[in-house]
Design goal:
The structure holds two protein chains of two kinds.
Chain A (H helix, E strand, L loop, with lengths): L6 H17 L3 H8 L7 H9 L18 H13 L6 H15 L2 H13 L4 E4 L15 E5 L2 E12 L6 E7 L10 E7 L5 E7 L5 E12 L4 E2 L6 H36 L1 E2 L2 E2 L4 H28 L4 H30 L9 H14 L4 H10 L8
Parallel strand pairs in A: 1-4
Antiparallel strand pairs in A: 2-3, 3-7, 4-5, 5-8, 6-7, 9-10
Helix pairs in contact in A: 1-4, 4-7, 5-6, 5-7, 7-8, 7-9, 7-10, 8-9, 9-10, 9-11
Chain B lengths: L6 H17 L2 H9 L5 H14 L17 H13 L7 H14 L2 H12 L5 E4 L15 E5 L2 E8 L10 E7 L10 E7 L5 E7 L5 E14 L3 E2 L5 H14 L4 H17 L1 E2 L2 E2 L4 H28 L11 H23 L21 H8 L9 H11 L4
């Protein structure tokens, strides 16, 4: 049992924290980056590459830096704290995760060096409108066509799809829409004929897109991992995504809580700082308690996400998402309330942090969904 | 960073688990698990078995029976003890007066009291709270006036847990009425057999006799029973309360309760099946388990930080453990009553108490557990601590 960071991890934390604090030290800086065509700054992306963050989770022999879940936690928590709009989660954690876990040597060799140096981005196109949060629900099809594949269907809310050169697309190669078996993953170039993107901004100021695939023709080697056996990869990628999202949420909540406490100390009403009122102090404390409980579960998810054993990993990660979701909602709502009117405006950083927390709640499964997953697995403790 | 236990820690866990389950009588553990009342002898039997093994006071200094375990081993030990439904070594002896005497008492006091405290030869109770001094403990009024080589004590203490069994009481008394609140308080050890002491039972909302009022009417206490310096008692009390707070989350206890709920739910008929078939009930159980897992990791974070900080000062983060730990203890008892359903309604009566099933003790356990968010510094006091010490409000 050890909560200490290694020297290398401490260095990583220092460098990414320093970078995020200077690049996105103010809401104006974040907003300026969001106004760029892809919703983030290509220059900042290049700097993340220079810092080694883009190759972080990939094996050294593939051109990465051999980081694990703890390194990802450190990176996303710091980026989250400053609302860095770069598609780190979409490209490195999700798309990159699928490539790392399922990619052949040739596929890894072809893509990872470009990802690490910042010239190539991925996105994970898995969710479909009817699926809600069910990971096995895939209606998009991939049929063998000559020596290759032909994809048809639609994907929705694909994070940062418009910034990706390659999309990791899930499609059904066998079985019925809600079968666990028969899902496969494909590497689809963003400019593939028959692929249409409809990009849009999201509630948190980020970007996503809906995809339509109409007879998208792919060569045989576009298949990522084994045919019909894509679901375990998707499960693991999304569980790693939840661990990363949990760490990001901790960074966002930490920033929002600090902002709120600072506001309580400086805002004067009735001739005194409102932080002197016990009713408000106790609410700020309850936010802090929720934040620390969420931090503990982000650590738990980080520890468990790397496990290849889905039966062990799944309930643990879902438990973390439940705790983080509840904390995100509570901390966000309380922060707005304690700020009063200023908390309601987009001119104020706090409102943007709340919007990000709200988005996090609904990414990769909401609270009832994950509570059911924990409950269906029989809970976390054995029966006495 | 690695949240797993080392192989040595896991082996230690196995060792203590095996000991608790094989050496502490099953009958005593069953009473604890089901929330039945324990007799004085049950506490004594259990603690003496632990003490014979050297495990009644593992956290004390080595010369008085301590084991020099690191904070993680101490945590594992307590967690396993609670999960095995072993009665906690008497809190007032082992976690309160013992550590205070070991840290601030003189050599004669240590030799006289500590071995008997560890072995529960003397049963101690706590004389802190008064009718007018609850969360504002320092407003206490019980007086001790020096008279030659004695103090004369007058006043009243309340909420004296298990005082009906006690041989001794450790008291905060006012020795300097002119000093500012905290400054005039001393820490005094008083023999419960002293003339002038009377004990009145208070029956609590669970219908049981757990706490008492203790009255002091010109009680003569030898001056040699003063711990440390006169008028420095508040410092010793703070030290004691800090000890109390770190163990107060009682995660192992809640784990034991939740695990029992999960077993009993599978045996409790409901509809065409059992309570465990009820998805809503399972979701409520899972909600508590999730928050409990979070608290367990939070506790480990506090424990890990503890090994790096000055242990004599309370860690304000331990207030999180008090708040969440007490809430979860309470939530687990709510599940128990819910599970027992209408069978929770009959109140246990003295003469048939052994014949009753677990359902009869669910409501008393629930009712009794309301105390945990009040004692040890109420949860509101804990929020004040965090607001001031961590948030700077």
């Amino acid at each position: 049992m050890d909560f200490d960071l290694t020297d290398e991890q401490s260095l990583l934390k220092d460098s990414v924290t320093r970078w995020a604090a200077s690049r996105y030290g103010s809401l104006e800086q974040v907003e300026a980056a969001r106004r760029k065509p892809l919703g983030f700054d290509e220059g900042a992306w290049a700097q993340l590459a220079e810092l080694g963050l883009l190759g972080l989770p990939f094996a050294e022999e593939d051109g990465g830096f051999g980081g694990g879940p703890v390194e990802t936690l450190i990176a996303v928590e710091a980026l989250g704290r400053h609302l860095a709009p770069e598609p780190y989660l979409a490209s490195v954690v999700l798309g990159g995760g699928a490539l790392r876990l399922a990619g052949s040597a040739a596929q890894r060799e072809a893509l990872i060096p470009g990802i690490a140096e910042g010239s190539h981005r991925l996105a994970l196109a898995h969710g479909e409108r009817q699926a809600r949060y069910d990971r096995f629900d895939v209606a998009t099809t991939a049929r063998r066509d000559g020596g290759g594949w032909r994809l048809d269907g639609a994907k929705c809310v694909v994070l940062n799809a418009d910034a990706a050169q390659t999309l990791v697309v899930s499609a059904r190669t066998a079985g019925g829409r809600r079968d666990a078996d028969g899902i496969s993953l494909f590497l689809v170039p963003a400019d593939a004929p028959g692929l249409t993107l409809k990009p849009y901004p999201t509630q948190d100021g980020g970007r996503a897109a809906d995809l339509v695939l109409e007879g998208v023709a792919l060569p045989a080697d576009a298949l990522l991992g084994e045919a019909d056996a894509g679901l375990p990869v998707i499960e693991r990628v999304l569980d790693e995504g939840i661990a990363a999202l949990s760490a990001e949420a901790v960074g966002v909540m930490e920033a929002l809580h600090a902002l709120t406490v600072d506001y309580l100390k400086t805002r004067k009403q009735f001739g005194t700082a409102i932080g002197g009122f016990q009713a408000l102090q106790h609410r700020a404390v309850d936010m802090f308690v929720a934040l620390e409980q969420a931090r503990s579960m982000a650590l738990y998810a980080t520890m468990m996400a790397g496990s290849a054993d889905a039966a062990e990993r799944g309930p643990a990660v879902s438990a973390a998402k439940v705790q983080v979701n509840r904390a995100a909602r509570f901390v966000g709502q309380e922060a707005v309330q304690l700020h009063g009117g200023i908390g309601m405006t987009l001119e104020y950083l706090g409102a943007h942090l709340f919007r990000r927390l709200t988005t996090i709640e609904y990414l990769f499964g909401d609270t009832p969904h994950h509570l059911r997953r924990v409950s269906d697995a029989g809970g976390l403790l054995g029966a006495a | 960073m690695d949240l797993r236990f080392t192989p040595e820690e896991t082996a230690f866990r196995q060792e203590v688990r095996a000991f608790f389950r094989s050496e502490i009588p099953e009958e005593i553990r069953r009473k604890v698990s089901e929330g039945r009342s324990l007799a004085r002898e049950d506490y004594v039997t259990s603690q003496r078995i632990l003490n014979a093994k050297g495990w009644a006071v593992p956290h004390w200094p080595k010369e008085w029976g301590g084991q020099e375990w690191d904070p993680i081993r101490r945590y594992i030990f307590m967690e396993e003890l609670m999960q095995a439904a072993v009665p906690l070594p008497l809190q007032f002896n082992c976690f309160m007066v013992g550590p205070v005497i070991a840290a601030f008492g003189n050599e004669a006091q240590k030799a006289r009291f500590l071995p008997r405290i560890a072995n529960l030869d003397d049963w101690w109770c706590q004389g802190f709270s008064e009718p007018g001094a609850g969360s504002d403990l320092a407003s206490l009024k019980t007086r001790a006036v020096r008279d030659g080589d004695h103090y004369i004590v007058d006043g009243q203490k309340t909420w004296t847990t298990l005082g009906q069994y006690a041989d001794w009481i450790f008291c905060l008394v006012r020795t300097d009425p002119t000093a500012k609140k905290q400054a005039g308080i001393s820490f005094l050890l008083i023999d419960m057999k002293s003339p002038g002491i009377s004990v009145r039972p208070i029956i609590t909302i669970d219908g049981r006799h757990e706490v008492n009022e203790v009255f002091f009417d010109s009680v003569r206490v030898p001056a040699e029973n003063l711990v440390g310096e006169e008028n420095k008692g508040w410092d010793y009390a703070k030290f004691l309360l800090a000890n109390e707070r770190t163990g107060i989350a009682r995660i192992g206890l809640t784990k034991e309760r939740v695990a029992r709920v999960k077993r009993l739910a599978r045996e409790t008929p409901a509809g065409a099946g059992t309570m465990w078939d009820d998805a809503d009930f399972r979701a409520r159980v899972a909600t508590i388990e999730i928050e409990l897992k979070a608290l367990e990791i939070t506790q480990m974070r506090v424990v890990a930080a503890q090994s790096r900080r000055d242990a004599s000062k309370p860690d304000p983060a331990s207030s999180i453990l008090k708040i969440k730990g007490s809430e979860l203890q309470q939530a687990a008892t709510e599940l128990l009553v819910e599970l027992a359903g209408p069978l929770s309604l009959p109140a246990p009566v003295a003469n048939d108490v052994d014949a009753l099933g677990w359902e009869a003790f669910a409501a008393p356990t629930y009712l009794n557990t309301r105390k945990v968010s009040i004692y040890g510094g109420s949860n509101e006091i804990q929020r004040n601590v965090i607001a001031k010490a961590i948030l700077g409000l």
